[in-house]
Amino acid sequence: MENAIRQPPEFQTVRDKTVRQRWDAYICKTELYLKVVKMTDAADKQACLLYCGGQDLTELFDTLKAKLKLVDEQDPPQAIDLYTATKTVLSDYFTSTESVTYERSKFRSLKQQEGESCTDYITRLRKKVTFCKFEQYNPDSALIPLL
């Protein structure tokens, strides 16, 4: 029996407090899938992202298409592939509702759990710090007060 490669599950587009984490996980799974199936063409990758995401994601993207930017604002302007531009538009939509204050509060309240190794605790902290938008300094420096 052959090992079938399963496509990523449909993405639930409900904008709740977990949407950013769910979106990041969906993108990670989709990009792994694209590597496994050796899909490299940007238009094909975009189609796969939307198809695997399901009807709700496809319909949502249809309403956001006008925000698609295929050229960045650098000097000189650089072309952006269709897949990256689509992913950016959807990421902006799903992360616009996040509360940085809430995420930072959650991050700062994390404690090492009983029986949790230091390595596992630091890994958990590193995952959570990505949602806090600590741009002024290296995210690793945000971990130090919690250790």
Number of strands: 0
**Mind summarizing the main beta sheet?**
none
* Helicity range: 40-55%
Q: SS-based structural class?
A: mainly alpha
Q: What are the low-pLDDT stretches, counting only 5+ consecutive residues below 50?
A: none
Radius of gyration: 18 Å
How many helices? The count is: 7
Order of helices and strands: HHHHHHH
Span between termini: 48 Å
* Quaternary structure: single chain
**What number is the mean pLDDT?**
82
The best one-word shape is: globular
Beta-strand share of residues: under 5%
3D architecture notes:
The chain is mostly helical and 147 residues long. It is built from seven helices and no strands. Helix 1 (19-36) packs across helix 2, helix 1 (19-36) packs antiparallel against helix 4 (82-95) and helix 2 (42-53) packs parallel to helix 4 (82-95). The model has no long low-confidence stretch (mean pLDDT 82).
Topology (elements, then pairings):
Layout: H1 19-36, H2 42-53, H3 55-64, H4 82-95, H5 100-108, H6 118-129, H7 139-143
Helix pairs in contact: 1-2, 1-4, 2-4
Task: Characterize this entry briefly.
This protein is mostly helical.
What features would you highlight for this structure?
7 helices; mainly alpha; 147 residues; single chain
